Amino acid sequence: MNSPVLTVDRLLEAAPDDPAPLAVSTASKTKLGIVRLRFTKAAGVPDVECTQITVTIPVGETGTDLTGNPGNIDYKYASSSGNWSITASSDRSRYVCTPSGPGKKFVFTDTAYFTVILDAIPVGRLPGEAALTLTAATTTAATMTAATTTAATTTAAPGEEDWTVPITKAVDDFFFFRAFSCEQPQIPNPGTAILRWEGSEHETEYWLSYDGRDPQQVTGQSAQITGITDTTTFVLDARTPDPQTGKFDRHHYLSTTVTVKEPTILAKELTAKKINVPDTLTADGSSKTTTLHGPATFEEDVTVMAKLIVNGTITNKDGTVRIDAAVSATGLNANSGEIRTTGNLRSGAATVTSLDAQSGVIKTSGALNTGDATVASLDAKSGAIKTSGALNTGAATVASLDAKSGAIKTSGALNTGDATVASLNAKSGAIKTTGTVSDGGSAFLRFGTTVVIRNRYHNTEGLNEDNKPDAKVSLKAITTNNARWWWYLDQPK
Fold first, then answer.
1. How sure is the predictor about 319, in pLDDT bands with cuts at 50, 70 and 90?
2. Both 99 and 186 in a single domain?
3. pLDDT band for position 472 (50/70/90)?
4. β strands within 149-287, DSSP E
5. Cα-flanking dihedrals φ and ψ of residue 2, to 5°?
6. Full domain range(s) for residue 244
C-alpha cells in the first residue's frame, strides 16, 4: 500500500497577535515595542510534530531592521500545553525554542499553539518593514513534499522549513511635547545651560527663546546655550502645522529656569529691603538716579555715575565712595573711607576721613567732621564744621568751625560763627564771623573796636595820650635822634 503524498506550502504558520505597527523611536525618546508571534499548524494538514523553532530578528539602523540595540529584549512564551525552553544568542538577535515534553516534541493539533513573546524591544528610528526569519523542524504522519509557491517561502531540507514574517514600523502621528528641563538646575557665572526635552519629531518644529531674544529654531531634542550670567528662563515653542493651511502656526509652549551662582544682575528697576555688596557696586547712567531707602553701608569701592539719594545714613567702612553727580543723605559716616563727589553733597551729620567735592557744593544740616576736605562751596549754617586736616573751599557758610589741627583755605567768603583753626588762608576771600576770632588767646581787632594806644618810651616828646572814648591821637615831632619809639594796644580802662 502506498503512503499518501501531501503537497503544502508549510506545515506551520506564524503571525503576530497584534497586527498594529510598532511606533518608531525618536532622538529623545526610545519607543519600546512588543512582538507576540503565534505558531499554529497550517489548515488542511494532519497533526504536526515539532522539535524546534528558531526566530531571528534583523539588527541595524535601517528601515528594514527591527532594532539597533537588542541586548535588553525580554523573551518568554505562551503555549496551549506543555513546557518549552528558549535559548537566546549572546546579542539576543536569535532565539531557539525547544519543547521539553515527552520525546522533546510538541504536537500541533487544530487547537494547539505556541507563542514566542519578545518584549521591551527598542524599536529603530526609521519606519519600514523588518522581516523576522523563522525556522521550524517539523514532521507529520503523511509524506510531505515541500513546494515553494510564494516569494516568502524557500525550499528547506526534509523535516525543516524556513520563512519570514514582516513586522511594520511606523511614525507615531500622535503629537506629544513634555519634560523640558535643564540638565543642571544651577550653573556658575558665566555658565552653559544644557536643555533637553521630549517631543514628536514628525511635522514638528522647535523654537527656543530667552532673555528677550528672538526665537531661534533648534533641531533634535536638546540645545546648549553658553555665556549665561544671570538666572534665565528658557521658553521652548513646539510648532505644528495647521491642517487647512499647512503653516506651522500652532504653538505649544514649555518653559524651564536655570539659576546662576553669584549672578550678574541687569535690572530696569530694583527694590530690596537690604542689599549686601562685599566687592564693587557701580551705578551707571548719566541721567539716572540711585535711591536707597534706609541706611547704606559700603565695605569696598563704590562708583555712582548719576545722582545718589540715601534716605538714611551713608556708611563707608573701607574704600572710596565716588559719586559723579549730586549726593543726598540724612547722614554720612566714612571714618575709615573716602567720599568723592563732583556734584552737590547734601547731608545731615557727616563724619568722613577725606572729602573731595571740588566741583560740587557741600550742604549739611548737622556737624561735618572730616580730615582733608576740598570743596567748591560749603554751606552748613546750622551745623558745626570740624576737620583734622586741611579744608580747601570756595565760599563757605557755617555755624561753627573747629580746625585746631588743620588749615583752612578759602578762595571765597568764609561766613562762620565761632571759629578755631590752626591756620587760616583766605588770600582771595573775605573772612566773616559773628563769633570770637582769637590768636594765641588774644582777640583780633574789628572795625570800631575801642583800644588804647600807649607809648613804651615816654620822654618830653611823643604821642599825645587820652583815655577818653572819643580821644584823638596826635603825633609830635621827634627831636631826640637816639630816641626809639613804638606803640602797643591796651584795653580801655
1. low
2. no
3. low
4. 153-154, 160-170, 177-182, 186-187, 191-199, 205-210, 216-218, 222-228, 232-240, 250-260, 281-283
5. -85, 145
6. 177-260
